[in-house]
């Protein structure tokens, strides 16, 4: 008959092996969980950086406010009167009514709301006339045409001839305006912008016409 102890002694090593398996599984699970958590943090940080970059690009493009452009485009004479006193290129009186077209170009992604302002006409350093520009608005990425009636009235102006062999009397005049308004990008974001119009044009008193319009 076999010894009873011979049936129980081989069970001890098997019991020790079964105790090691759960601890190994737990360690592997914890290691895998830690790796997944680290990857999640990296993904979240990468997404945050990406979204921040996109926001900065959008803000720099859509929320940035630039100065609209105010320019004198056309001049049409409606009334023209002047008197020459002598042959030394001077005039005793000059009265002109002219209809001008002023354009306001808004390159922003928000509307530009502007206030009333005055446009002045200068010859040299002297103001010889002007007009009134009514306030209003121009939409985003739009250009608005504004009709402005300007009056010129002055006397004793020193004139020049257009050439040594020419009898045309030409005077250079300058149209200047300073406009203030706000660019409304959103309901909460708006920027105050003050712009200027500075244009020169030659007035030919002989042909009663304007030429060489230049705006800076």
From TrEMBL:
Chief location: membrane
InterPro entries: NDR1-like
Region feature Disordered, mapped onto this chain: 1-23
GO CC, any one term: plasma membrane
Keyword terms: Membrane, Transmembrane, Transmembrane helix
Transmembrane segments: 40-63
Record-level GO BP terms: defense response to other organism
Location(s) in or outside the cell: Membrane
Top-level taxon in the UniProt lineage: Eukaryota
PANTHER family per UniProt: LATE EMBRYOGENESIS ABUNDANT (LEA) HYDROXYPROLINE-RICH GLYCOPROTEIN FAMILY
Name this polypeptide is given: Late embryogenesis abundant protein LEA-2 subgroup domain-containing protein
Lineage: Eukaryota, Viridiplantae, Streptophyta, Embryophyta, Tracheophyta
